[in-house]
Amino acid sequence: MKSQKQIPAMSMMAIGSVLYTAYLNQSPVQIQTQRQENQLLPEVISGLVRGYGEKDIYVGDVPIRMSNLRWAALS
Hints:
SH3 type barrels; five-stranded antiparallel sheet; 37% strand
């Protein structure tokens, strides 16, 4: 895993708004999680929001815990 630059964290409300807009319009989204491994931030994940559960969203086929999101933006 390569190191990514640290993107400023967003509020959960702001992240939710981006994800909702992306889901409604089937627009690509980019996200970064808060999980760090060996002091490295995870890579930015890009894709379509395919769905959501009670605590997870699905970007492509990847389930991501909502509480673990740090940043989101429309692509």
